[in-house]
């Protein structure tokens, strides 16, 4: 398993001034850094690739859709914008040497609805993602769908729903990205949800139930890693928390108190705990 950290542990926005975080990850003994692509215009794939190669760690990426790129929108122009944006993200991922791109990429994050999602909305999402996956396949990139909690999306909340959407997309590189923070709200069993994702699993966000240091809260880590061991999981996993957030991120992340003394402490303690479970269950 490639263990890393989401750059949000240290910074609210990625740009070239954050390239030093790649060395920081390597210095903390991690295998991987996850780069957010919400501001794709600030991302320099060539610089990221060069620095990752220099320090010897891997890279993956993630993003979310908004109201201007919503694949479930009734307006076909908005859906087209979403496909174009996701293709741009895929291309940037490949250019920086990554092979996994994932996130809330099936509908706008935070989208509210008066009704349950319709079959047409599922079909809109699957059609857009099918086009993205075909584009990504030619670049050697896997596309992961991340279920998130009911307050952040109305479409995909569980591993079962994510698998259903990958089946609708029907492309070999359509995959599932799980996140323990959201699973703590939406799933009934961490072990079973992980097994449900099964061979489709490409990425795992490892967060405590409060987004604090893994191992200090309510998440069933033993169940998760027992399932990962049975799956012989060799994909990516990243610690994801929002410790050193700026004021402009607080409304989006709803972090109003310190979850760890610092990003470094969260990574060091969290990685130590996760590595112990990896040694126990994944051989």
From TrEMBL:
It comes from the Bacteria. Pfam families: AP_endonuc_2 (PF01261). InterPro entries: IolE/XylAMocC-like, Xyl_isomerase-like_sf, Xyl_isomerase-like_TIM-brl. SUPFAM superfamilies: Xylose isomerase-like. Residues 23-262 form the Xylose isomerase-like TIM barrel domain. PANTHER family: HYDROXYPYRUVATE ISOMERASE, INOSOSE DEHYDRATASE. This is Xylose isomerase-like TIM barrel domain-containing protein. It comes from Candidatus Glassbacteria bacterium RIFCSPLOWO2_12_FULL_58_11. The lineage of its organism: Bacteria, Candidatus Glassiibacteriota.
């Amino acid at each position: 398993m490639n263990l890393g950290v989401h750059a949000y542990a240290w910074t609210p926005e990625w740009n070239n001034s954050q390239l030093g975080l790649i060395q920081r990850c390597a210095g903390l003994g991690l295998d991987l850094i996850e780069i957010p692509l919400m501001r794709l215009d600030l991302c320099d794939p060539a610089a990221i690739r060069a620095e990752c190669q220099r320090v010897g760690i891997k890279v993956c990426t993630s993003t979310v859709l908004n109201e201007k790129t919503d694949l479930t929108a009734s307006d076909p122009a908005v859906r087209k914008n979403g496909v174009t944006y996701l293709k741009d993200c895929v291309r940037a991922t490949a250019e920086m040497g990554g092979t996994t791109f994932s996130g809330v990429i099936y509908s706008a994050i935070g989208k509210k609805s008066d009704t349950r999602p319709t079959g047409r909305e599922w079909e809109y999402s699957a059609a857009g993602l099918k086009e993205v996956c075909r584009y990504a396949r030619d670049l050697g990139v896997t596309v992961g769908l991340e279920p998130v909690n009911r307050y952040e999306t109305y479409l995909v909340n569980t591993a079962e729903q994510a698998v259903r959407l990958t089946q609708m997309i029907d492309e070999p590189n359509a995959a599932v990205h799980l996140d323990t923070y959201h699973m703590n709200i939406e799933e009934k069993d961490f072990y079973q949800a992980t097994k449900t994702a099964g061979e489709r699993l490409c990425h795992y966000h490892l967060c405590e139930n409060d987004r604090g240091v893994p191992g200090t809260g309510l998440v069933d880590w033993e169940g998760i890693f027992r399932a990962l061991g049975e799956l012989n999981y060799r994909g990516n996993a990243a610690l994801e928390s929002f410790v050193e957030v700026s004021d402009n991120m607080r409304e989006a992340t709803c972090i109003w108190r310190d979850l760890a003394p610092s990003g470094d402490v969260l990574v060091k303690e969290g990685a130590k705990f996760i590595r112990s479970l990896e040694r126990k269950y994944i051989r």
